[in-house]
Amino acid sequence: MNRTALILGVTGQDGAYLSHLLLGKGYRVVGTSRDAQMANTSRLQRLGVADAVEIRSLAPNDFRSVLKVVSGVEPDEIYNLAGQTSVGLSFEQPVECMESIAGGSLTLLEVIRYLGSPVRLFNAGSSECFGDTGKEPANEDTPFRPRSPYAVAKATAFWQVANYREAYGLFACSGILANHESPLRPERFVTQKIIQGVKAIANGSKEKLKLGNLDIWRDWGWAPEYVEAMYLMLQSQEPKDYVIASGRTHSLRELVETTFHHAGIRDKEWVKVSEELMRPADVTYSSMDPTRIGSALGWKARRGPDSIAKHMMEGTLF
What we know:
Number of helices: 11
């Protein structure tokens, strides 16, 4: 019998890749958007799955709206990928950030508890919750020290999920996701901004690439691989939270240099650091330890930053 998956945030990068993965496994995939008729399905279209995904209107903070969709779809699995996704934007819209992430998560959990259905829930967490890790990689036991409204909201949602799992016996878990990229990334994300800027320069543009702090370190992975981890977490016998990362940390400066190298351009002539793009507070060094998910579920990130930059430059989707 075919299984049904409900994906909140289906039109984003992860939602599109997850839809492609699940449809390939024979799932019925239902996605949500605040207004189904106005949903931007361009990423689903690029992956060739737009016609196969059913899209329903859903307001994440409206209990009745969530109840109507979940009870109507009767999913076996729910993937909560919805909510504000930009750390930078969260400093400008902190209230909306908290409401969309933590408020939406709580509403969804309460609907699942109210219905009493045996649905399995994956919640998209973030490595930003750890804050600065220093050179000691963060794992599932590392305390959270969030340094942005986005990270605070994600940390709140993480503990909501843990509480509902322990208090009410829900099969609910969070993947603590490190940065993961693809050609489906919006241009407000720094990786896509770099890619598009370098492409423009390679095509003759004289405009320099303006960036903020280049001396930040992150664990960058490949989005199509990370949605595989999401799927595996809901196939396990018991719900557990896992760090989803590559275990390799690189600076933004290195990523910029790598991207310019693939274009055959000297980056120092074309990069301008702008104070306007600096965040009020930022995570300088973020290092992740994905050992536990590798041991438990056999998942491992395969593609590194050099390969990611190359594939994003070429527009390779997988």
